[in-house]
Amino acid sequence: MGILNDAIREIALEKQAAEEERRQALEDFDMITSRAADTVKQAVAALRVELQAADWWSDELSEDSHKPDYLRLSFRVRRHSGNRDAESNPDYVYSIKFDALGGAVRTTGEIDPLLEPCEFRGVARQDFALDLQADIKLFLKAILYRD
Fold it and tell me: In this structure, what DSSP letter does residue 125 have?
């Protein structure tokens, strides 16, 4: 019975260690990405006000969270708010996916991407907001060039 009890005890310890590792991974992910995610949320909220004033349409920022693997924030934009015709006024998607290592990848659509994917490193940096603003501006310019 000693071997069986040892096996049971080892399994319990392994489960406990795995749970602690998962909890630590979640904490690390939140610490790394929380400031960057807040930066994106603030930038998109301000952008939506600007776009609506210019008669553009944009939807709410959506969040797809699979912590501690990734967090994806996305929004869609349409050049003319009153025109819902997908041919003459298509939706453009801006999506940024944060990873657990402090990086992120921005994409602008899957079928016909507006821009090549952009990789951000060190998203917890103070100046990530400047990088994000420059990238969103690039996204909007690409839309304007297409129209």
Answer: S
